[in-house]
Design goal:
heterodimer, A: 74 residues, alpha+beta, 5 helices, 2 strands, B: mainly alpha, 0% strand, elongated
Chain lengths: 74, 168
């Protein structure tokens, strides 16, 4: 069975710890649309590496704190 | 519902209206006997006119949509906060209309569906020429496949906006 990589994120948690930052505020900081932030947060969209770095930068944390990869299968 | 979804719905509605208008006009002329499938000049003129109408209608609908959306955003902003000024409203409108990587990716994926439909239309048009030997039928299939392609492109966009794009 091939390995599958599922990208998970902690955006909701990080927004909470950033004084309940709104999705709109995060979108502005990461130069993305609110729709994209909503989709990423809900796990419906995997962002590009560049956007992932911009999101991490918006929170002032490392990319690994925002996104995690769950490996499934052998 | 996001700005992109609203914009797509408007485009889909415009495509439906144009297909319906073309079919009603062209085929009612054939049914009434004022035009027939052998009259290639009639079909060429009709298709050219509808291409022109299509471009004009799309531009007008998009302009009207942007005006109405801007008004709706301004009214909503004023209701939320009476003290907000024009700069705040302008900023909100700009933020609402931001287009980013997800929009571009969805557009590319939807365009691929549109190309497949147009390609299938082209093959069907050639097959129709083999079986019916009418150039007018070929022209109609080609023309309608372009409209159907743009219609499905819009529907695919709506689908991707709702379902999302996992793993690119």
């Amino acid at each position: 069975m091939a390995k599958t990589y599922e990208i998970k994120n902690n955006i909701r948690k990080l927004r909470f710890f950033a004084n309940e930052m709104t999705q709109q505020e995060l979108a502005e900081k990461a130069s993305a649309s609110r729709q994209t932030i909503i989709a990423i947060e809900a796990g419906k969209y995997t962002p590009s590496l560049e956007l992932a770095f911009r999101i991490a930068d918006a929170f002032g944390v490392e990319i690994g704190e925002v996104f995690e990869c769950e490996v499934k299968g052998e | 519902m996001s700005y992109q979804e609203k914009k797509t719905i408007v485009s889909v509605l415009a495509a439906i209206i144009l297909i319906a208008a073309y079919c009603i006009y062209a085929f009612s002329r054939v049914r009434l006997g004022t035009a027939d499938f052998g009259d290639l000049k009639f079909w060429a003129i009709t298709i050219l006119i509808f291409i022109g109408i299509g471009i004009a209608v799309t531009i007008i609908i998009q302009i009207v949509f942007h005006i109405l959306l801007s008004i709706a955003i301004a009214v909503r902003k004023k209701l939320e906060n009476e003290k907000c000024d024009d700069r705040d409203i302008e900023k909100t409108i700009k933020l609402e209309m931001v287009e980013d990587e997800m929009d571009k990716l969805i557009e590319l994926k939807s365009m691929r569906i549109s190309f497949i439909i147009v390609g299938a239309g082209f093959v069907s048009a050639l097959l129709s020429l083999i079986f019916y030997s009418s150039v007018a039928v070929l022209l109609n299939i080609l023309f309608i496949s372009f409209f159907v392609g743009s219609l499905f492109e819009g529907l695919a966009k709506l689908y991707y906006y709702r379902k999302g794009l996992k793993n690119g």
